[in-house]
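DM between two lab members

TW: hey, do you still have the UDP-glucuronosyltransferase entry open?
JB: yeah, one sec
JB: this one, 348 aa:
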Amino acid sequence: MEGKLWKTINNLYEMQRVICEYMLNDTVLLQELKSFDLIVYESFSFCAVLVSELLGIPKVIVFSGPPNGPGTFAHNIPHPVSYIPAPMTLFTSEMTFLQRLVNFGAYNFIQSAEQVLIARYMGSLKEEYNITPGKSYQEAAGTAELVLFLADFALEYPQPLLPGQIMVGAISAKADPETLPPELKDFIDSAGGHGFVIASFGSYAQTIIAKEKIDVLAEAFGKVKQKVIWKLKGYIPSSLKQNIRVMSWIPQSDLLAHKDIKAFVSHVGHNSLYESAYHGVPVVAVPLCTDQFSNARKAEHFGLAKVLDHKTMNAEELSEAIQHVIDEPRYIYRVISLSSELLTLTHE
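TW: and the structure you got?
JB:
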């Protein structure tokens, strides 16, 4: 699994390098970009750093995650390893001495791996095109005018930040939800006072979750008394209970804002985690890959989620977990408290 993951990461960096080479060779595009005063780019758009340096345009970087996430090392963000967990370690800010040692090793390993990958793919391009030869790619990336994080300390571990490094909150969550389509509204209204649950496992769930496990999910959803709105593509179980509505796409933030929502069964991607907290909805976290495991651990630490292993869970465990987060007062208390904090901070 580790070898496959490393190969996938290398392929992603290689894809970025190929795209970047096309951009650097596109003289028409570069000429048009010279008229801009600022480049705002997402953290994994590595080529934006080279374009910014080549054209002498100031840059602002946006991280769609917390300041201790992957890719943050080049930006001089303080990472005290005694209480800031390294990416994907599943530690919290409360670590034992042994966990701190492991965290120190993980932090240095991930930082070194990032430096190797950047040097191999982006650093080589920087040298080839003779872009600001006096500094490395990491040094160039670290000169961003602003570093913005789509996160908030209401749902993150305490971490020092330097001037120009700013948490901007849950911007993917809608303060004013849109009206639901009539068929969804009618389905929710037919819940008979029990409310409804939504289930969504991200864009690539069908490539990770086996058909047998999808059948387990269907069985579990059929056991709960709430209506279930399930985002699902690809394989659809043949026998679904009447309380389940399968859709290829759902208005997730609008549904989370609905007054009758009871729980969210989620892979806990970053946006899903923040949207559920913003709207005060308890979560059954079923992480599938990458940062989702850290997100699930964080959601559990902050008291808004119960975590299940998608490989080993059965229908009974999942249905009981859904009912547990709905009925257990401590989940409701925590999500309401978090929602209040995020709403206040977002609208300040």
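TW: got it. The longest strand covers residues 261-266. The mean pLDDT is 91.
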